[in-house]
Specification:
With 306 residues, the chain is of the alpha/beta class. It has helices spanning 44-51, 73-77, 95-105, 110-123, 139-151, 169-183, 195-201, 219-223, 241-244, 271-282, 296-304, and strands spanning 4-15, 18-29, 32-38, 59-64, 67-68, 80-83, 157-161, 187-191, 204-209, 212-218, 230-235, 250-257, 260-265, 286-292.
Amino acid sequence: MSEAVVKVKNLSHRYSIQWAIKDINFEIPEKGIFGLLGSNGAGKSTIMNILCGVLKPTQGDVQIKGISMSENPVVAKQYIGFLPQDPPVHVELTVEEYLSFCAGLRGIPREKARKAVDEVMERCAIAHFRKRLIRNLSGGYRQRVGIAQAIIHSPDFVVLDEPTNGLDPNQILEIRRLIKEIAEERTVLLSTHMLSEVQALCDNIRMIEHGKIVFDGTVADFDNYLTPSSMIATLLAMPSVEEISTLPHLIRVEELGGTQYRLVFDDLTDIADQIVEACVARKWRLAEIRIEKSSLNEIFAELSKK
């Protein structure tokens, strides 16, 4: 396993008397895309602000590349690139002017700043807009400019908060491709409410609810969190619901249209063989049967207890 870029140790924070997060511990290894999920008010934004050095925690610490954020925040922040939900762009500047300004903020020497700006514009496919005012860019290209400022100093750790929020489907696909390219060279933490985004981009997921981690694993682990209880069967003979309802352990039958049925059981153990045997005996002409996974929304609801 590669060395962790981020280490979160015993992290807790409270606002007044209310704890927003409590005893959070996790590590993020080098390279890849890691999703941070959570309902509104779960503590997700608090964690992101602490990770980026915007907020000082009540207890615990964050290390970036082995450097303590609480003890040496200036050095730790040099390894971080951050794109807030609303890109922090100055719309009265051109793309080139704004990124040059960001290079200066990041302490890139003047003699190297021009090259850094040119490289990041090429990487984010905005070089042809270098002289255009940011106010005249579409939402998708403003988002690209926001990502460009987050990576202009070649950080090891990039935090993206809702990077595709408000974009159309084509723009979303373009931003996803860009994020995947960025993650080939560095670690990306992606915060999003869109479960489809997690499926499309992330390698691992951490879900926060009520200030605590309720899930930490791969996307595949998340997909399989709930034990499936239903099957989709294609029965070419189109038997009636009443006929199908005689199957053992069956709780409910739903007609899905045409020759497809959803069969909900109280236990799926060895049930496939029983269905095949019943279909052969009753000449239902079984063409296909497959276990139906729980939807991401159902899993999210179960983990968040909502």
